Each structure stands twice: as structure tokens, then as C-alpha cells.
């Protein structure tokens, strides 16, 4: 294992020579052994303990333990600290050891896998851990790839092989890789044994979709790309065998380079708790100083007179030194104000909350058989405090299942169906869809309603034919024909699959492809095109092109891409057609459709040959290869002729409008960050009710310069005419946005109130208190300026004053920057939700990241904190699980600090009556067991199971979510109230028994007051009082709560009587000296009266305060509970009576896959074997009336939740 961890100098480039281990070993490359485990048998104990004592709390308690071992200081036995400390360390160590055991098991399983390695001209079985860089290995079908390999040859034609990359990117569809032609013939072992090529490439990195290198062999050099690589973690599929050259091994492989840890996230409660614990430490030190000063004064003034009876220890030579020792003694005794069990209990509660999320059947997607998953246990309570949600659009709000809906060809729009009056027919009023029976290869699932498009195809319209010819040629779709006429397409994006399927149904059937050809059946006639080049898609180009030669020898470039890119690359002669097509694009986008522009260009032979030569030189460049290729592509993709445009429908997911309406009513602001165009995103905003016609204003920001963006941020209505917003507030003079907001807020009058957030952020703005509802829409190029340092505050201030914000055409980096901006200036919890690889940065940046397991693999899920399959589950995650988790954690912390201050402060008061001698009130066993046994389980039960209102009410009244956003249930104020209550309880707990015992006598007339009887009385009173208190705090009683609370009381009395029994005294006479003390003390009526009096005086003020608060100033949850009781009574009365009686809109953008296409690979050859596409369909349900009722409920915040309740709702 030492080799696995061996450190090597950083690499600038990787050199690997085939079949030459001696040459490769001088570079000290990592072996193929992996090690994800942290410990072994020898290092586990020291390393694990070292890691655990990195925690401040553990170090603090270790320090206390050391103090307790000093006889002159400690008045407590060492086991009072070591027992809970060892228990915590042991639980954590067992958990770490278990996790590491499974890591060891996984490592050994992987490292010991067998691989066939070519050594000395023969194939030999070797363990994976012994494979080295430069080795040639043989893989067989269904085997895992052992290391990052350069594919040399395979059993398939043209050196192809098929792989599944689920372990790398979560995508289960097969991908194809191909060997470069010069090595594809090296299928014979004797030839491979003589192969001595050297690869010079980039150093190890974590970029899964990129590889740049060059193979040097036989005095020639050959460019290498990612399409020639097989990465570790892939599985070989549908390929009998292949050979590969190891380039990266073990920790250098891209799989292992991507296995770094995600940034650790802490909740706001964690950060607050750390601050409070530091305050408590300071308070503890202050108490220790007070008592130490008291000890020094007492020893100086009083203790010196008792030296004969109470001599100082040998080490003590003065009253001052006695006080110094007393300080440390009291630090030990009073340390229980911060018990170590607090941290363990918090983790147990969070674990329980995570299991509740995982087990929630209402968040289980039956269609995909996917449950919700809490991928972290540290953020549950923060789910109840979210104020900002940042959402992707495609695949998150929408289904990402694309349907070809409309198109524009040579200025004519197709797709609409008109009735006899010339009006557009709605979907439900349309006739039967087009009959494609003339085409035996048509996809029976494809539906289209406009017959005029099919007529145009049948009559041979050249523009229509060229349109569908482009769709059938310009793509990277893989085709498989299992049976005659049964075609299966596998596309890398749903958009592309929809377009090729549309061309297929209209008679232009993409049938098959070879490395250099594409075969299309055009109206029943098979035509083979020579594929000369594929200019592949990426996120910068936002377009793809193919260059083909038709059977007549004519060379033509076909291009499709986003309109913002393609329209600028058209020939000037297209202006009239461009205007018409642009109108169609606006119309399509106004209906929420995703648009794409198609164009072509004829190339002459001489120009193409010259261009192809430049392209080859760019592909062989060692430096800036991608930039040089992009420049060459840019040159040829110019002066193109416009063909038309396509429009694809991407429907909303089920339940999205209801979810957004609920979350909005919960005072959660939703920002949509999407790569689509402004018009598409805005239209989706209207569809899902983020934007409404009732809004006061929708601000549009599309400026290209800093000055334009700043002006538009301040302007209202600059481009509002493009939006379907019919607001009476529009003004021709275009006033400043802020001024307009402020003007409208001034007209509200005294009836408008705004509750300022308790924990105000650094950005304090009156804009957030304005009346009316506003929305902001901003484009990516404008956002780039808005995020600059001198304008980010202005942008944020305006955006946060809006009810909804939509950012369009944004890059993945910009998504993360927007989230970071809100985190930086707003003290608010942020949540990011997305489904694709382009959402990963946003998900990792936000306080909480949620991944949707949708159509784009599981990259977002792997980077997330929580995951599920549909956006609608977000409402339940936040409004039910999040709110309950926050409520439970806050109640747990309040009670925990209360009970420990009530327990510990009794020692402080006793110090004034025992000469500040650091003597304890309680028995040392009681001190040890108080937090571990007597009070641990009841508070855990409350922290795991408690709820203020049922889940149905949590969803019915979203305003119940606001206390978490305002941090009302646990903050510094609530902490001090708990501490004050604990101190108040400790005062009564000490002085009431002290006063009673001063004069009380037993039944036989003897003095009742003695130290042990007093200790038993105070301890019993304490356990009963804190048990009564948690009974009052518990809002939802279960059998487990009853069992833990009353069981803990029973266990206390059982242990108490056992420790004072004769049996234990006989076994341990030095430890349990006070035989029968508990029985004798608790047999006295005076003692029980004292306990009852103490309990009543401690509890009654709490009961009285809560009664008055419930009647005079109830919370919303109190009102909802009251309403529920009223409803139950009304239902009961009703049952009794019945028994007696019976006795719209904008322009959208086409979105390609967010990964590089297969273009370069297709050019080198492939014959992909595919299975059919299984696309899930979702049905959206109408919910407008329900949403409107929710909005009415929001506006009527002062009314009762039901007609039967007569108390006002408090938001």
C-alpha cells in the first residue's frame, strides 16, 4: 500500500512509451493501486484519536479529565468525565472504523481484480494494482476498464468499441470510442508486442470530457482526443475485445481525480451554537473566578481559625493559592453547563430527520422508482430557514422531454391548425393528427396536426425538402435497426432526438452511418452522403455543422444553432426572409417553445480542400488546439443561407405551479437561472405562476454596456411591450425603478406594515418594504456587468425587492456567482436546485443543494445535499421536513441548555454555604448519569418526533414557515431566556430544600438536615422538574415519548435505591457507604412536600406564561391547532346531528446537450448499437382555482383559518 500513497513531483506533461516499463518507471508515475481508506490496524487508534481531538469540545473534556486526575484540585472522581468522553469517542471511533472497513473492502476488491496484460509478448493475468503506465492490456465484453487507456484496436470494424459511463457521469446510454486508424489494425498480439509508440499528453486532471495528446510512432505524429480514450470506471459493452495502452493509472485516473471531497457545509444553528458555547465557557470562567475569590477570602478570614480541625493540604501555603486551586476545582464541577452529550445528541437527531426524508413515501416517484434521499445529515434544520431558491429551468421546472411542435420554412409557418372561422384551434379542438402511413419507417409515437407541411413535402417543395434533409444529416444521433424497419435512435440531447424523429416521419429517414458516410432514405429512396467534416457543438459555439458531399459531387455545409449566434452569420441577401423568420421565432417563443435556426452554405472543391488542410493543422497543434479549431470553424460558418427555424415544446413538470405558489406564500423568493433565451424563460415564468398579469411591473434588463445596464436597472418598462403584462401602472416617461417602487409604497398609507427581519443583513434597503409585486428579467450579457463590483449591490438591491427574478442566457459560472452574491450580502439561507452538469457549481455554492434525477444523468445528484425526481417534492421537503427539523432542533437546544443550567448552577449557590470548598451537592454517580441516562432519551424523543401541527396543516398554511426564516425559535434572545429559566430553577431547587431542611425534623423528632438527605432531595426534585418541563415542551406525544419520559423517572428511582442498597455496599463498601439513605429520606412526608413545592414553584410560572401568551398573543401555529380542535368538535357535533336525523409569453432558445458532441468520433467511424429511447411523460393538471385560493389566503392574512375559528391568524 505504500506505493499507493507515494508522493511524486508535479507533472507538466505525461510521457508514456508502450511496452517499456524501464523507461516509464523513471518518471515515478503512480501505480494502478488505489487507496481510499484512511487507517490500518496500527494507525487506527492514534490517527482516529488525533482526528477526534481536533474537535474543540473533545479537547476541552480531555483537559477537564486531566484536571480531575490532580488530587489537590478535583473533588469529583475521574469517571464522571471519562465515562461520557469515552462513550462519545467510542461511538465515533466505531462509526469511523466501520466506514473505513468498507473502504478497505472496496479497495481490495478493486485492486485485486484480474486483467490481461501484455508482458514479454504474451498475455498474462495480473492484478489491477500491478498494472503500470505504458502497459498494453486486453479488455473483454462487460469488463470494467482498469485504468485510463488509449484505445489501440478492437474486435469491431474501424477500431470501434462501445462503453457505458454510468460510474463517471451517471448516463446509462452507450457511448462509442474509436482507435486512431494507424493502430486500429494492431489486433494481433505479435504486432502489439512490437508496438513502441510514445504518447505525450496533458498531465493528470479531472476533466472527464477533454483529452489532448499526440502519439509519436514511426517518425509520424497523430493527434489524440477524448474520443480515443477509455476511462477507468467505464464498462465495455457489445464489444468482444479491445486493446488499450495505459496512460493514467490509479490516483491519476480521471475517475479518482474527480473523487475529491465536497465542500463541508455548516448550518446557521451550528455557527450560532459554536458562538454560544464560547459564551458559556466565558460564563463558566467568571463563575470559577467568583467562587475562587470567595474561597480565598473565606480561607483568609475564617479558615485560618480552623487549621487544627481542617488543615490545608501540604501543597497549599496561603489563602491565595487555595483560591487558585479552587478555581480549577469549580471549572471541573461546573463543566456540565456544556455537556459532551450535546454534540452526540445533535447528530442523532439529524440522522433521524434524514431517515424520515428517505422513508417519505409521498416523495417517492413511482414512475422512476426513485425515492427522496438525504445525502447529508448536517443541513436538515436549515431546510426550515430557506429564503431564496435558485432553480434551473430545463429538466427542473420542465420535463426535458422534447416534442417537435412547429417550424418555419422559407418564411412560411407550419404547426398551427385553424377552424372554419380562421381561428387557431386549441389542442382539445384539433382534428385527428396527420396520418404517416405512407412512410413505413415512421415513428408511430410522433404526432403532428398541420397537414399543410406534409403536403409541402409530398409535392416536392425544394425548401421543405432541404429543411428536412438538414435535420436528417446535421446531428450526432446514433441509429440501430434491430429488425427490418424498426429504427431506434439514441441522441445525446432530447432536442436533437426530437428533430431527427420529425425528419424521419416526414420522409427523410436517417438510416445508418459509417465513418465517412451517412445514409438517408429520402421519400423512400436511399441516398448516401459522404461525410467530410463535423463541426461539433459546445457551450461557446452554441451551434453544430456538418459538411457533406452529395452523390452529384456537390459540397454543402449544413448548420443549426441558437438564433443569437446564427442570425449574425447569414448572408446579407437573407434580410427579408430573416425578418419574417424572426417574427415566427417571436411567435413560437411566445408560446413557450424552444427555437433553433437552420442554415446552409455551398462550398467549392478548391476552397474546401484548402480549409480542410488548415483544420488538420489546427487539430495537430500542441498548444491551444481548441481555440485554433474554433477559429477555423468560425471562418467557414459565415455568409450562410437561411432555411428556417424549428420550435420544440418542453412541458412543465406536474405540480410545478402549485409548488411555486405554495413556496411564494411561505415568503420564499424564487429565482430562475437558465441558459435559455429571455422570451422562453419568461413564458415559462407565466406558465408556472412565477409571473402574473396582476404584477405591478416587470423590469427587463438587456443592456450590453455598463451604463446601459445601470440605466435599465433603474428604469421601468424599457422592454415591457414585449411581455404580456397588462399593468395599469405603466408610464410613458419611464421613471426610475427604485423611484417607482418608492412612489407606490408611499401611497399605501398606515395600513401597510412590514416586518423587518430580526437578523438584518449588511444590505439594508427600504426597497424591500415597498408595496406591489415586481419581477426582474435580466440577460446573461447584462448580468455579467451587473455582477461587477461597482454594480453588484445595486443589482442585488433591485432584485431582492422583486417577487420573482429570471436570469436568462447565463453560464454555469454566472449561476454560481448569483448565488454567491446573495450569500455574501443577504443573511439568508439559499437553496439551489437543478438536474444537469451545468447546475453543479450552483448546487455546491448554495447553502443547500438539491439535485433532480432527471434526463441529464446524475451529475447534479452526486453534487447535491438532497435529491429526488420531481420539482414538486420541494414543497414537502421544505414546508414539512425542513420546518419540522428546524422546530425540533430549536426546541431540543432550548431545553438542553435549560436543564443543564438548572442542574449545574445548584453547585454555584451551594458554594456560598460550604466555604467555597468545591464540594458537590449531588452524588458523583448522579452527576455522571444525569446527561447520559436520566435526561438523554426524553429530549432525544422530542428532538426526533415532535411537531407543532400535522403535515397537512404545514402545507395548508405556508405562513407557518416564516419563523424559521426570521430565526425566531432559537437565537441569542431565546438562549438567554432558557439560561434565565435554568438559573431561576436552580435558585428554587437549592434554596427551597435548604430553607426547609434548616428547621425540619424526621418522624422520630431527629434533625432531618444532613448532606446525603439534602443531596437526594435536590436531585429528585431536579429530575421531576425537568421531566415535567419536557412534558410541557412536547407538542406531539407518541408512545416513545411516554416511554422515555416516565421510563427515565423510573430508572432514576431504581438506580437511586440500588446505589443505597445493602447489596452494593457489601460488594463495594468504599464506594457505596450510605446504606438506606434514599429509602429513609424519601420515606419522610416533609421531603415529598418539599419536592412537590419545588416542582410547583418551578413549573407554575412557565404554565402561567404560556397560558397568557396563548390567549393574548398566540402564534400562527397556536391558532392552527385551535382551529383544528374547533373542526374536530364541529365534525363530532355534525355526526351526532346526522345520527339523530337519520335515526402565457416570449421567445425561446434551443438548448443542446451541455457536453461535447460525438461529431469528431463520427467522422472517424462508428456503428452504434442502441436500445430504444424510453421517455417518461408527465401530465400536467389544472390548478388555477386552487392557486387563486392560496393567493386569496395570503392576502387575507388577518382572517381565521376556517369559519369555525374566531381567533386571528398571526403571520
TrEMBL record:
Mg(2+) binds at residues 392, 394, 835, 839. It is found in: Endomembrane system; Membrane. It holds the Pfam family Cation_ATPase. The chain crosses the membrane at residues 76-94, 276-298, 318-344, 892-913, 925-945, 975-994, 1014-1032, 1044-1065, 1085-1108. ATP binds at residues 392-394, 496, 537, 560, 594, 674-676, 809, 815, 838-839. It is a multi-pass membrane protein. One of its GO terms (cellular component) is plasma membrane. Residues 861-1114 form the P-type ATPase C-terminal domain. Residues 17-82 form the P-type ATPase N-terminal domain. It comes from the Eukaryota. Residues 718-743, 1182-1211 are annotated as: Disordered. PROSITE patterns: ATPASE_E1_E2. Belongs to the cation transport ATPase (P-type) (TC 3.A.3) family. Type IV subfamily. This is Phospholipid-transporting ATPase. It comes from Loxodonta africana.
Amino acid at each position: 500500500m505504500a506505493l499507493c500513497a507515494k508522493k511524486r513531483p508535479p507533472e507538466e506533461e505525461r510521457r508514456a512509451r508502450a511496452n517499456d516499463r524501464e523507461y516509464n518507471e523513471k518518471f515515478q508515475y503512480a501505480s494502478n493501486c488505489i487507496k481510499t481508506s484512511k487507517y490500518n490496524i496500527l494507525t487506527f487508534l492514534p490517527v482516529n484519536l488525533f482526528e477526534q481531538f481536533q474537535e474543540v469540545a473533545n479537547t476541552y473534556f480531555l483537559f477537564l479529565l486531566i484536571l480531575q486526575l490532580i488530587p489537590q484540585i478535583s473533588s469529583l472522581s475521574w469517571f464522571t468525565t471519562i465515562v461520557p468522553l469515552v462513550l462519545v469517542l467510542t461511538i465515533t471511533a466505531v462509526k469511523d472504523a466501520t466506514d473505513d472497513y468498507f473502504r478497505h473492502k472496496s479497495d481490495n476488491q478493486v485492486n485485486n481484480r484480474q486483467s490481461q496484460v501484455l508482458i514479454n509478448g504474451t498475455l498474462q493475468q495480473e492484478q489491477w494494482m500491478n498494472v503500470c503506465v505504458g502497459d498494453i492490456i486486453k479488455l473483454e465484453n462487460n469488463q470494467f476498464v482498469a485504468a485510463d487507456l488509449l484505445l489501440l484496436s478492437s474486435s469491431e470494424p474501424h477500431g470501434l468499441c462501445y462503453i457505458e459511463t454510468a460510474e463517471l457521469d451517471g448516463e446509462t446510454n452507450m457511448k462509442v470510442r474509436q482507435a486512431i486508424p494507424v493502430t486500429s489494425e494492431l489486433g494481433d498480439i505479435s504486432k502489439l508486442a512490437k508496438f513502441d509508440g510514445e504518447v505525450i499528453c496533458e498531465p493528470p486532471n479531472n476533466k472527464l470530457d477533454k483529452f489532448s495528446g499526440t502519439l509519436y510512432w514511426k517518425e509520424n505524429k497523430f493527434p489524440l482526443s477524448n474520443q480515443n480514450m477509455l476511462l477507468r470506471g467505464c464498462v465495455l459493452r457489445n464489444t468482444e475485445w479491445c486493446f488499450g495502452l495505459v496512460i493514467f493509472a490509479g490516483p491519476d485516473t480521471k475517475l479518482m481525480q474527480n473523487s475529491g471531497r465536497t465542500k463541508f457545509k455548516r448550518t446557521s444553528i451550528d455557527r450560532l451554537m459554536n458562538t454560544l458555547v464560547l459564551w458559556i465557557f466565558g460564563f463558566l470562567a467568571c463563575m470559577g473566578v467568583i467562587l475562587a475569590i470567595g474561597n480565598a477570602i473565606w480561607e483568609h478570614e475564617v479558615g485560618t481559625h480552623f487549621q487544627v480541625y481542617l488543615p490545608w493540604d501540604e501543597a497549599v501555603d496561603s489563602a491565595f493559592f487555595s483560591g487558585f486551586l479552587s478555581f480549577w476545582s469549580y471549572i471541573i464541577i461546573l463543566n456540565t453547563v456544556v455537556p459532551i452529550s450535546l454534540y452526540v445528541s445533535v447528530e442523532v437527531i439529524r440522522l433521524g430527520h434524514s431517515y424520515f426524508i428517505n422513508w417519505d413515501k409521498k416523495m417517492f416517484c413511482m414512475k422512476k422508482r426513485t425515492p427522496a434521499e438525504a445525502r447529508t445529515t448536517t443541513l436538515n434544520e436549515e431546510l426550515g430557514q430557506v429564503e431564496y431558491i435558485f432553480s434551473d429551468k430545463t429538466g427542473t421546472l420542465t420535463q426535458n422531454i422534447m416534442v417537435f411542435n412547429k417550424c418555419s420554412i422559407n418564411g412560411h409557418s407550419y404547426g398551427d391548425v385553424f377552424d372554419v372561422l380562421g381561428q387557431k384551434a386549441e389542442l382539445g379542438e384539433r382534428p385527428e393528427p396527420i396520418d404517416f402511413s405512407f412512410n413505413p419507417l415512421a415513428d408511430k409515437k410522433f404526432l403532428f396536426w398541420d397537414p399543410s407541411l406534409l403536403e409541402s413535402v409530398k409535392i416536392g417543395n425544394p425548401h421543405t425538402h432541404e429543411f428536412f434533409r438538414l435535420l436528417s444529416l446535421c446531428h450526432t444521433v446514433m441509429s440501430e435497426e434491430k429488425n427490418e424497419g424498426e429504427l431506434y435512435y439514441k441522441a445525446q440531447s432530447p432536442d436533437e432526438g426530437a428533430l431527427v424523429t420529425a425528419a424521419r416521419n416526414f420522409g427523410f429517414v436517417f438510416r445508418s452511418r459509417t465513418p465517412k458516410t451517412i445514409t438517408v432514405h429520402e421519400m423512400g429512396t436511399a441516398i448516401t452522403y459522404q461525410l467530410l467534416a463535423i463541426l461539433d457543438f459546445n457551450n461557446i459555439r452554441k451551434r453544430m455543422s456538418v459538411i457533406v458531399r452529395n452523390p452529384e459531387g456537390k459540397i454543402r455545409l449544413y448548420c443549426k444553432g441558437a438564433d443569437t449566434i446564427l442570425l449574425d452569420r447569414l448572408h446579407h441577401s437573407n434580410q427579408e426572409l430573416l425578418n419574417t423568420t424572426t417574427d415566427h421565432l417571436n411567435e413560437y417563443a411566445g408560446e413557450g417553445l424552444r427555437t433553433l435556426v437552420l442554415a446552409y452554405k455551398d462550398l467549392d472543391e478548391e476552397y474546401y480542400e484548402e480549409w480542410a488542410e488548415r483544420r488538420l493543422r489546427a487539430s495537430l497543434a500542441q498548444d491551444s488546439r481548441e481555440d485554433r479549431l474554433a477559429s477555423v470553424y468560425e471562418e467557414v460558418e459565415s455568409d450562410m443561407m437561411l432555411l428556417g427555424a424549428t420550435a420544440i415544446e418542453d412541458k412543465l413538470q406536474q405540480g410545478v405551479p402549485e409548488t411555486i405558489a405554495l413556496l411564494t406564500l411561505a415568503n420564499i423568493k424564487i429565482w430562475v437561472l437558465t441558459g435559455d433565451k429571455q422570451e422562453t424563460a419568461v413564458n415559462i415564468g407565466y406558465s408556472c405562476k412565477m409571473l402574473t398579469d396582476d404584477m405591478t411591473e416587470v423590469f427587463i434588463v438587456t443592456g450590453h454596456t455598463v451604463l446601459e445596464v445601470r440605466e435599465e436597472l433603474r428604469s421601468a418598462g424599457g422592454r415591457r411591450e414585449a411581455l404580456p403584462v397588462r399593468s395599469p401602472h405603466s408610464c410613458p416617461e419611464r421613471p426610475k425603478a427604485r423611484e417607482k417602487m418608492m412612489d407606490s409604497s408611499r401611497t399605501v398609507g398606515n395600513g401597510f406594515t412590514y416586518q423587518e427581519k430580526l437578523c438584518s443583513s449588511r444590505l439594508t434597503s427600504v426597497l424591500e418594504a415597498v408595496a406591489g409585486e415586481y419581477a426582474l428579467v435580466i440577460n446573461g450579457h447584462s448580468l455579467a456587468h451587473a455582477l461587477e463590483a461597482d454594480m453588484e449591490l445595486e443589482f442585488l438591491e433591485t432584485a431582492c425587492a422583486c417577487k420573482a427574478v429570471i436570469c436568462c442566457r447565463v453560464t454555469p459560472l454566472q449561476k454560481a456567482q448569483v448565488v454567491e452574491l446573495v450569500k455574501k450580502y443577504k443573511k439568508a439561507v439559499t437553496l439551489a436546485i437543478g438536474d444537469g452538469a451545468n447546475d453543479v457549481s450552483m448546487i455546491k455554492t448554495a447553502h443547500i443543494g438539491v439535485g433532480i434525477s432527471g434526463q441529464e444523468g446524475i451529475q447534479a445528484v452526486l453534487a447535491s445535499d438532497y435529491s429526488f425526481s420531481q420539482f414538486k417534492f420541494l414543497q414537502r421537503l421544505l414546508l414539512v421536513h425542513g420546518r419540522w427539523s428546524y422546530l425540533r432542533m430549536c426546541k431540543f437546544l432550548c431545553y438542553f441548555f435549560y436543564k443543564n443550567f438548572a442542574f449545574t448552577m445548584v453547585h454555584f449557590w451551594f458554594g456560598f454555604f460550604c466555604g467555597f470548598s468545591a464540594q458537590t451537592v449531588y452524588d458523583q454517580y448522579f452527576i455522571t448519569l444525569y446527561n447520559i441516562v436520566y435526561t438523554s432519551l426524553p429530549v432525544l424523543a422530542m428532538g426526533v418526533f415532535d411537531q407543532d401541527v400535522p403535515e397537512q396543516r404545514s402545507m395548508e398554511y405556508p405562513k407557518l414557515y416564516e419563523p424559521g426564516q426570521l430565526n425566531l425559535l432559537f437565537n441569542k434572545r431565546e438562549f438567554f431566556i432558557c439560561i434565565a429559566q435554568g438559573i431561576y430553577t436552580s435558585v428554587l431547587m437549592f434554596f427551597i430544600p435548604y430553607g426547609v431542611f434548616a428547621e425540619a425534623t424526621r418522624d422520630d423528632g431527629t434533625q432531618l438536615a444532613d448532606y446525603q438527605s439534602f443531596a437526594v432531595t435536590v436531585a429528585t426534585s431536579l429530575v421531576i422538574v425537568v421531566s415535567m418541563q419536557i412534558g410541557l415542551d412536547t407538542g406531539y406525544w407518541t408512545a416513545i415519548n411516554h416511554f422515555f419520559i416516565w421510563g427515565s423517572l423510573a430508572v432514576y428511582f431504581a438506580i437511586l435505591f440500588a446505589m443505597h442498597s445493602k447489596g452494593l455496599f457489601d460488594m463495594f463498601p468504599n464506594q457505596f457507604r450510605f446504606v438506606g439513605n434514599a429509602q429513609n429520606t424519601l420515606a419522610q412526608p416533609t421531603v415529598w412536600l418539599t419536592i412537590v413545592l419545588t416542582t410547583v414553584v418551578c413549573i407554575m410560572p412557565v404554565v402561567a406564561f404560556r397560558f397568557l401568551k396563548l390567549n393574548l398573543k398566540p402564534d400562527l401555529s397556536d391558532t392552527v391547532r385551535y382551529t383544528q380542535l374547533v373542526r374536530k368538535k364541529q365534525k363530532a357535533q355534525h355526526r351526532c346531528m346526522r345520527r339523530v336525523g337519520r335515526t402565457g409569453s416570449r421567445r425561446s432558445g434551443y438548448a443542446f446537450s451541455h457536453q461535447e458532441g460525438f461529431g469528431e468520433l463520427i467522422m472517424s467511424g462508428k456503428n452504434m448499437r442502441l436500445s430504444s429511447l424510453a421517455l417518461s411523460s408527465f401530465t400536467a393538471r389544472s390548478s388555477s382555482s386552487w392557486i387563486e385560493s392560496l393567493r386569496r389566503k395570503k392576502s387575507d392574512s388577518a382572517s381565521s383559518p376556517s369559519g369555525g375559528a374566531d381567533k386571528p391568524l398571526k403571520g
